[in-house]
């Protein structure tokens, strides 16, 4: 006898994604585009949580709305929660403590793991939307205190900044691609001892392939992290052993 259990209005949305309150384009590869994933996801917008408050101001009053959003996604049946901004790693410990399912606020959570894979003379390169806004509270939230890393921000690149920080609703995709590749090359040029790159920003994964082709390094982002966690949640049986 097979029994099916309910308790939720709908089911099958394994990953819940807490979204910033934005209107800029989210192309495939962006965490905010559902076509990025090959499994169902569920979105919930945290009203009022715009890039200025999260990235530039690191507004601590946003913690409670994000916790409320995480609880709502858990109550809706999601089995893990992520976000649409890597700077939310400043809330990692509090949000993880508030629910009973895994919380991955930021791709920066991968930095210690990636660093552990590299030799002692290699750094992790971090591409971020705004280097000047990354602070010790973000590094501590990600557990990066003992990691060797180098950071390159996108402040000097207008197409990326205008869309993803200033909120413009039109994106020149080719220009943004050129900017991110240029930033990655600059990061490597100034740090030839890089062993891998981690994108802080959840808007960067659409360009991960281009960056990898340009610099020849492993590239990690919020998509690699979410897929990794989803694989742990959606295990499949292996094929029977051939004798």
Describe this structure in words.
This protein is an alpha/beta fold and 243 residues long. It folds into two domains: 15-106 and 226-233, Rossmann fold (3-Layer(aba) Sandwich); 107-221, Rossmann fold, CATH 3.40.50.1860. The protein is 35% helix and 14% strand. It is built from nine helices and eight strands. The strands form two sheets. Strands 2-1-3-4 form a four-stranded parallel sheet, with helices on both faces. The longest helix has 18 residues, at 173-190. It is globular. The mean pLDDT is 95.
Question: Layout of SSEs?
Answer:
Layout: E1 15-19, E2 41-45, H1 51-56, H2 63-75, E3 80-83, H3 92-98, E4 103-104, H4 111-117, E5 123-128, H5 136-141, E6 149-153, H6 158-164, H7 173-190, E7 194-199, H8 208-215, E8 219-220, H9 222-233
Parallel strand pairs: 1-2, 1-3, 3-4, 5-6, 5-7, 7-8
Helix pairs in contact: 7-8
């Amino acid at each position: 006898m097979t029994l099916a259990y309910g308790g939720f209005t709908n089911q099958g949305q394994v990953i819940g994604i807490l979204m910033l309150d934005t209107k800029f384009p989210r192309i495939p590869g962006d965490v905010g585009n559902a076509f990025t994933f090959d499994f169902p996801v569920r979105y919930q917008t945290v009203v009022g949580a715009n890039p200025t408050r999260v990235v530039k101001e690191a507004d601590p009053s946003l913690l409670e709305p994000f916790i409320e959003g995480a609880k709502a996604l858990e109550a809706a049946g999601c089995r893990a929660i992520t976000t649409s901004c890597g700077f939310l790693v400043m809330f990692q410990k509090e949000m993880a403590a508030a629910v009973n399912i895994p919380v991955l606020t930021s791709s920066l959570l991968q930095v210690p793991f990636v660093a552990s894979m590299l030799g002692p003379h290699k750094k992790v390169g971090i591409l971020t939307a705004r280097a000047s806004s990354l602070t010790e509270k973000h590094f501590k939230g990600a557990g990066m205190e003992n990691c060797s890393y180098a950071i390159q921000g996108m402040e000097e690149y207008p197409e990326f900044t205008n869309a993803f920080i200033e909120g413009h609703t039109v994106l020149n995709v080719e220009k943004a691609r050129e900017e991110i590749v240029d930033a990655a090359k600059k990061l490597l040029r100034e740090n030839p001892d890089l062993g891998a790159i981690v994108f802080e920003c959840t808007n960067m994964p659409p360009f991960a392939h281009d960056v990898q082709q340009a610099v020849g390094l492993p590239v990690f982002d919020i998509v690699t992290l979410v897929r990794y966690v989803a694989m742990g949640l959606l295990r499949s049986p292996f094929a029977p052993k051939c004798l």
